[in-house]
Amino acid sequence: MPKVCHVLSRKGSHVLTISPNATVLDAALLMNEHKVGALVVTQANRVVGIVTERDVLQRVVAQRLDPAQARIANVMTVDVICCEPDCSLDDARNIFMSRRVRHLPIVDPRGALVGMVSIGDVNAHDLNGAQRTIHYLHEYLYGQQQ
Fold first, then answer.
1. What residues contact residue 85 under an 8 Å CB cut-off, 6+ apart?
2. CB 99: neighbour CB atoms within 10 A?
3. Separation of alpha carbons 36 and 128, rounded Å
4. Rounded to an integer, what distance in angstroms lies between the CA atom of residue 119 and that of residue 12?
5. Shortest CA distance to 105 belongs to which of 97, 93, 114, 94?
6. What pLDDT score does 141 carry?
7. Could you say which architecture CATH assigns to the domain 4-118?
8. Per-residue confidence at 131, pLDDT binned at 50, 70, 90?
9. pTM score of the predicted model
10. Every domain of the chain and the residues it spans
């Protein structure tokens, strides 16, 4: 059964993080620079929150806060669900659907951040597996073509 660690092994374990003391402007610039939709908020390599594009829209833009003054600690989502690398992809999919989130921080058994997967990462993993299956079935049915 495929696990989160299989996705991490393909995409890598680098995670963009930010301090709860940083400004929302810092977060927005970092997300734009790296073309990502979320940053894990950490203190001492422990997950204390997550800040997403949705958080910025709902808690900063819609509230008309100054992003250069607003602190991440005041706008981040603090109820962050995490999973361990041996979590199955089926369980990760269920988390994405039931919690209506797009990003899932991965922590080791001690709670240290080791990676992050998105719903897009899981979908890409599934698509890659389906493409391999199609290729193998095609070879089986029609013989290996040069």
1. 3, 4, 5, 8, 106, 108, 114, 115
2. 12
3. 21
4. 15
5. 114
6. 72
7. Roll (3.10)
8. low
9. 0.81
10. 4-118
